[in-house]
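== Polypeptide entry ==
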Amino acid sequence: MATSLDELISRHAATLAAAIDAVETRKNWSAFKDSPSAKFHAPGAPEAGKAAFEAQRGRSFDLEQPGIIARSGGEVSPFTRQSLGIDYPVCDPAALIAAAGTAMADWRKVTPDTRIALCLEMATQLYARNFEMAHSVMHVAGQSYTQAFSGSGPNALDRGIEALAYAAKAMRDVAPNARWDRMFGKESVSLDKHYALVPRGIGLVICCASFPTWNAYPAMFADLATGNAVIVKPHPVAILPMAIVVQQCRRVLAEFGCDPNLVTLAVDTLDAPVAQTFIDDPAVQIVDFTGSPRYGGHLERTVIGKLLFTETAGINSVVLDSCDDLAATATAIARALCLFSAQMCTSPQNVYVPVGGIETGRGRASFDEVAMALVTAIDSIASDPAMAAGIMGAVQADPSCEIVRGLAARAAQTPGARILRKPVPYPHPDFPDARTMTPLVVALPADNAALYAEEHFGPVLFVIVTADGDTAVEEATSLARKHGAISSYLYSTDEAFIDRSLDAYADAGMNLSINLHGAMWANFAAAYSDYHVTGLNPAGNACLADLAFVAGRFRVVQHRRPSVREGETRAA
């Protein structure tokens, strides 16, 4: 091998140390540049990445795995509405499980530092393919090019490295051996104790369609770093990004003399899902799931005796109590809503505005004035096709459009509800056939929870009348306790109101952003600094990332025996 494993550990030592420092200080740090600007990358890298994606279209994906029984693939681009024409190996689940178990036998004996260094090498090599990844994510998920490059590339890889930092901390906390001395009466007892880190078992990573890499990297790296093998189950409509990930991880493992079957891909179809087959197998001991609350809730109720990590969705709310600049506040909310056409787990859905309006830096604004400021801010994005394309991207699937159109029809028949903005497509400047939809905005009386008291996966904003800010906080946190929430937003110039609201949000397990404006997106979550999901409400039982995300993926097994006295040797 050109590079030894010891050299690999040395190569990535500074990155790991910086990641550990970042999670301990919560400061800003990243291992990668998250801008696709050519000035940050090697000459020709953007063009080469696009060419690699185009060359893959209409061809079989090169991935040799155990137990191939068929080939399958039916991905359709949300931008072109055309099939990608890529097929992938479909493998017998029993063969993948057996191969993963065999690979783990040696992998568990590899030192934690070596396993982590190999994962960091995987991250580095995946970043080298990030332009290819960006086009792949675009054409299965519908993210804009810039978002696919950053959010599904370096931002997601950073979440993976964050998990590696916590894995290193958790494993380093276990001393490998100890000398134990104690007097029992007049007798001195000395024991040598040895502690082994033992992996939990095979990990199954179930990916979502809209952000396939975001939760996959942390789960995969947490499993691998702690000695477990990984089987990746991509969503049937978004296979390509995870196929690239698995392909590259297998290449790194093989390059350094490890069994590539530590990482495999389990492809299925919408009509014949395979996840449950893996979940039911006793060898699979860890399940990471990202996706719908329906299936996530099913897993939380039925997966017993195994380690389960879930992130689903929830009702993300904005409480608008007061603000200094109504236009700036409306713009911040509109940007968070419009980003990826509200197909993000951090997208706001419900905005609460007091019936009497709010105080602003320019006097009092009525409820209707606040609502129309939100509509105006959305229109400023939606009316500019170039801006809309960069922010909204495309809608991943027709069901999301159907959900929003159905809500518009229901709102039109709901007493007291007013449609302030209809959901209409915008013309994408580069892809005329793109599936696009700009947000539906509905003003609602407070007593009409039938429309807004559940999560709707698509571009919709409910502007809800509330008695006052305190009542709004009470309702928003109550809905989160029942249905979950991943991101929450509050705008107020009243510090006393903010202070008394904090406990309510904390009690509901809701991460809260207060008075965010300006260049940073209100729903941007920074790896190493922002905890993503709390595990304290129905939006998910796990957090990206903390010690709890990795510590249970290995256990400690010890053996002990009498110490050898000085001058003696242990009997054979």
Observations:
- The chain has a mean pLDDT of 96.
